[in-house]
């Protein structure tokens, strides 16, 4: 069973039985050469960098999966009040961090 | 000779940037306006507590976009930073990115047959490209909770 994720503080359709604490997941991704060439072109012409959008979407999904795994390990079936945060750790690499409160719901 | 070559390539990049950049921006705004009209039935709010009673489930929805400014506008911005003041050339970039992110979030909500998205949050970060660490690309993430109603 997958863990329910929500950024609301209360779930309107469920009752929280137990609060289990903070869970988190993160990934650090760097850009890639092929995408970088395209990005260089886009830097002249302007517009969306689709390669980067996909890259960041993938890493966000990975961070969410890690958070879900952590929540599952402590016996939670939902994570509420989820927040995302992005920071660049080095030139061309960024960290995607997601955290929330693990809870047990009905 | 070398100076002339550098100058010529700079001018070429400026012209290309201006032409393609303003074309892309106009086209993007057109598409934003049409899609915003199309998704108007999906109400996105930043209230934290939903009032709806007949809720069957909730689901996190996200929309994100990485968008870059063109060469011409970046040059204008570089000039602007010398004297300070409002950076008009970056304002439209951020506006487009935020609206695009919301539209993608709404598209995700529509797939879930949801018409209400609560607790919308934005997350903006700049992606540095190039050697001299100029801010040219920004990433905007919009996320919220879609209510699935009966």
Could you explain how this protein is built, in words?
The complex is a heterodimer of chains A (106) and B (150). Helix content of chain A is 35%, strand content 42%. By secondary structure, chain A is α+β, with helices and mostly antiparallel strands. Chain A has one domain (4-105): Translation Initiation Factor IF3. In chain A, strands 1-4-5-2 form a 4-stranded mixed sheet. Chain A is elongated and about 55 Å long. The two termini of chain A are 14 Å apart. The mean pLDDT of chain A is 86. Chain B is elongated. The model of chain B has no long low-confidence stretch (mean pLDDT 88). Chain B has a 4-stranded mixed sheet with strand order 1-3-4-2. Chain B has one domain: Translation Initiation Factor IF3 (2-Layer Sandwich), CATH 3.30.110. Chain B is of the alpha+beta class. In chain B, helix 1 crosses helix 2 (71-83) and helix 1 packs across helix 3. Classes of the chains: A alpha+beta (106), B alpha+beta (150). Chain A binds chain B through residues 4-13, 36, 39-40, 42-50, 52-53, 56-57, 60, 82-88, 91-92, 94, and chain B through 13, 16-17, 20-21, 24-25, 28, 48-50, 52, 55-60, 62, 64-71, 73-74, 100, 118-119, 121, 123, 125-130, 133, 136-137, 139, 141, 143-145, 147. Strand 3 (47-48) of chain A pairs antiparallel with strand 2 of chain B, so a sheet runs across the interface.
């Amino acid at each position: 069973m997958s863990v329910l994720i929500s950024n609301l503080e209360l779930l309107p359709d469920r009752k929280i039985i137990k609060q289990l604490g903070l869970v988190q997941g993160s990934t650090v991704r760097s850009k890639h050469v092929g995408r970088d060439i395209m990005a260089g072109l886009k830097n002249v012409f302007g517009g969306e960098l689709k390669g980067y959008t996909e890259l960041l979407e993938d890493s966000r999904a990975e961070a969410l999966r890690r958070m879900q795994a952590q929540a599952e390990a402590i016996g939670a079936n939902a994570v509420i009040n989820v927040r995302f945060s992005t920071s660049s750790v080095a030139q061309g690499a960024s960290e995607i961090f997601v955290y929330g409160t693990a809870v047990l719901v009905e | 000779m070398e100076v002339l070559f550098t100058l010529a390539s700079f001018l070429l990049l400026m012209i290309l940037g201006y032409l393609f950049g303003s074309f892309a921006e106009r086209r993007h705004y057109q598409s934003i306006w049409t899609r915003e009209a199309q998704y108007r039935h999906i109400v996105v709010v930043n209230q934290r507590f939903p009032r709806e009673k007949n809720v069957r489930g909730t689901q996190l929805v996200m929309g994100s976009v990485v968008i870059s400014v063109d060469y011409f506008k970046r040059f204008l911005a570089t000039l602007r930073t010398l004297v300070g003041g409002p950076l008009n050339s970056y304002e439209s970039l951020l506006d487009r990115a935020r609206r695009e992110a919301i539209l993608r979030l709404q598209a995700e909500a529509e797939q879930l047959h949801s018409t209400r998205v609560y607790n919308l949050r934005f997350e903006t970060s700049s992606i540095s490209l190039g050697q001299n660490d100029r801010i040219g690309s920004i990433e905007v993430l919009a996320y919220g909770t879609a209510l699935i109603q009966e």
